[in-house]
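Minutes, project check-in

Agenda point 3 was the complex the collaborators sent over. CS summarized: two entities, 838 residues total, and the question is how they sit relative to each other. Sequences were read into the notes so everyone works from the same version.
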Amino acid sequence: MVSIFTAPLATPAQLSTSPSQLAGIPEALEQKLRLVACRLIQAAGILMELPQPTISTAIILLQRYYLTTPLTTSPLLPTSLASLYLSSKLTEHPQKPRDLINIFKYLLSPASPLHPPHLRKPTREPPEPSEEGGEKEAGKVKKKETNRNEYYVSEGDYTALRSLLLSTEARILRALGFNTTVNLPYTLAFNYLQSLGVLTHNSPPQPDPAATGSPSNPRQHQKLVSTTFAYLTDLLASPSQVYLTHHPHELAVAGIYLAARDHGVKLPERWWEVWDVERETLGFLVVVMRGGTYLGNSKLWIIEEGGFEEGIDGGTGEVVPVGAESVLREMERLRAL
Amino acid sequence: MSSKHKSRWDNEDAAEDAAEAARRKAEKEAKKAAKLEKARKAEEQAAAAAAARRRHEEEHHEDEGRHAQNSLTISDEPPSKRRKVSAEPDDGDNTNNDDVAAAKKRRQHASSATTAQEKDAGESRLLRFPAPEIKPCNSVDDYEPLNRIEEGSYGIVSRARHLASGEVVALKKLKLEGETDGFPITSLREIQTLMAARHANVVNLREVVVGEQLNQVYIVMDFIEHDLKTLLDDMPEPFLQSEVKTLMIQLLSATATMHTNWIMHRDLKTSNLLMNNRGQIKVADFGLARYFGDPCLPLTQLVVTLWYRSPELLLGAQKYGTAIDVWSIGCIFAELILKEPLFQGKSEIDQLSKIFELMGVPTDEEWPGWRRLPNSKSLRFPRTKQTTGHLLRSKFPLLTTNGVSLLSSLLSLDPSKRITAEEALKHPYFRDDPKPKSEAMFPTFPSKAGQEKRRRLNSPSAPMRGDAPQLFGEVGLAGRSGLFAGLDEEEVGGGFSLKVH
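CS then shared the predicted structure for the full assembly.
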């Protein structure tokens, strides 16, 4: 029985021998590219109004796939496309390849909010990188000045990318042995929060929330849930790839731990053991979660082809091209160093 | 740590993992050997802590699966301070026991390395969940083809032998040639649901193997000798009541498990029930199965083979649930007794009229809101005292009262009043004499699929993708009254007569 608690996990051997690194991609570059893929998928999913579970599933499928296949064999763009295409089917929100390709091409175009502002034509005002990161901005439709030609997908490009998408989909399924079970921690986290009694709306408001430390109004409940979910979603793109090494209940507990601490909600002693999470596991996951902002990192810009430029614009971020050729060039450059 | 500790990653279900697990265990032991002496002290303290909180945990894990193996000796020491929660897990330790602190740091270090799972299951009584590995498909060349069993619109099923083990399996090749949108969502659902619906009475999915070409995908399942449809056709006498009960219990418990796991089969019928020579049936062909949600979303009405299709589907309900599977089970129950399908309609309208002939035209009290279903607006139903209420008693004169009661609850016209698979298992019918026959006592039958091609079945097949039919016309009830028989022929073309027993 496939239970909601288990998910296929990577073996230590798989994690220690990355096929991309065996193919000559340095670890730092691999992590950068994987992070960029996660951002692209997340941004595309938001633009397509896909539910977060569909997006999260796509990211996890992509990470599992790159455990088995090097980035050189399966370039980032078709793989990200295929992961989202596959997860949209698996989660019963099927999308057309055409729409996916249009959206991804838009996200890689100069019109995209993910595009580095200093590489844009000066006529356009650069978007302000906000705290929430590029994805939120991606939702806004650009102003009239946007040149549609910047993200026009020609019929030839479309056909080529579409057949690449479909063959990559088949390869992903084969590489995963058709085991596409992805159990996400969101529902578990919600259930756990409910069981912990911190979401009960019926309870009368506490006279002094600061004294008891428990949330006193629905808005705070809402915040607790959304902070937990935010931790869990951002964790998807962490370079530690904990979604490949930890079960969903462990991730859920870690998300709750941090969210409860952020909002000053007091939880019972050793509550995580109720859900079979060891203190050490929890500690490790908390360290990973506090390691940084990954998906919402506003200092990371994405282009299709070009050079890797670090510390551009007075340290406002780095530019990562996703095109296969740029990646090869960067590999050459790093090898020459 | 001694070697008898089971790795938490040990998957006891998968034999193929054994080699991998052994390798990992050896690796772990090598690492652990160096730390053994210091770790032992820490473990003793952890054991004490585990003992103290065991009672607390067990309240929460009554039905969550197997408990991790606990190989600890519980000491009577009080719980160690290390278990206090006042400090953050990551900012050092709050204990004055150096040994424990060191052990903890080591463990934390181990988990922050890429091999986070190199941990030890013996430490506490927390549940451990096995995880399948992420591994690519094997090649179809691992199997030697034997003979073809069946060919359908969904693909070809053949018998094959696994070269390494010599076991005979059923190999289903998916038809992917005409696909323009990548891997079809229906096949994805089939594989996903089959993987999730592990049950003694669901056919076992062994693996998915692939050929050289990207569109060569095969599902490998256990080979089962018979299908129930062919068996029923060939048996001189129908199943005994005791045998029917056993088969029904198996079918209902498999269906109940699927439904608990949010899976609808959507094509239950006797030809999709395989039967082995050990008295077990196995639900097969998940080609139309899918996950459902609560509340349900509009789904396609083009599901379930016509003869097993429920009235709400025939009337065009866009939202339906697990009750459609239960209706099919009702049809199968009747078929096991009659040795022939219960409602053999020639078209959707004919199917509806056959259903209403036996079960009666629903009244608004029996099935509130049925008149609002899309297709019932355009259909006219004769409604008199004569046409309402079911005639199951006269159709099944030899069935016990409880048997008729179960059948009528399975074939309840209103899906919301239809019994669930879970409830049906508790029906008094199964406690009546004759008691369900033990599986071991079942007769065996010569296999049709074993050597020769399985006979093409004289029954309609599952609906294909397309537009749902718009029904209109008059539903005649020939069996109830001769008055309507003619009308039915006019509208449908195919006349019929109902045998009233």
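Noted in discussion: Chain A touches chain B through 63 residues (CB under 8 Å).
Follow-up: revisit at the next meeting once the mutant set is ready.
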